[in-house]
Design goal:
It is a single chain. Helices cover 36% and strands 14% of the residues. By secondary structure, the protein is of the alpha/beta class. It has a 5-stranded parallel sheet with strand order 1-2-3-4-5, covered by helices on one side. α2 runs parallel beside α3 and α3 runs parallel beside α5.
């Protein structure tokens, strides 16, 4: 279960409640939300989701400053077993940037569905493979 810090008055209690439910907990950061917001919670969480677009609707342009945010987060978490997820504007062009910076979970919407349809679903697989290959090649 992933929550935004802005969605609660008590992030610590929300994290603990999710853990009590025996679920993994993630914290989602909007592009303008500072990493320091979660610094004191890193020992308690399993995932940080960095939004690389402003939440609201699909097809938005990737916000390049979030690559540096991923890199800083990677340094902050060190050896802690925390996944770094990124969501928004993920394409074969942006996937290598965020993978190299430290993201290990990439969420792609428009990047997957672009050019496809119910009558032409083959493009979905092509798009997924293109994103995956671009991310993997950046790590070699």
């Amino acid at each position: 279960i992933t929550i935004h810090p802005e969605a609660t008055d008590d992030l610590d209690s929300s994290i603990l409640k999710i853990k009590e439910l025996k679920k993994k907990v993630g914290v989602s950061l909007n592009p303008k939300t500072k990493l320091e917001t979660i610094e004191n919670y890193l020992e308690k969480i399993d995932l940080v989701l960095i939004m690389s677009v402003n939440p609201g609707f699909g097809g938005q342009k990737f916000i390049n400053s979030q690559v540096e945010k991923v890199s800083k987060l990677k340094s902050m978490i060190g050896e802690l077993p925390i996944h770094i997820e990124i969501d928004g504007g993920i394409t074969p062009t942006t996937a290598p940037l965020v993978a190299k910076a430290g993201a290990d979970v990439l969420v792609a919407g428009s990047g997957v569905f672009s050019g496809g349809s119910v009558n032409n679903p083959a493009n979905y697989g092509v798009n997924i493979n293109s994103i995956r290959l671009a991310a993997e090649q950046s790590l070699k």
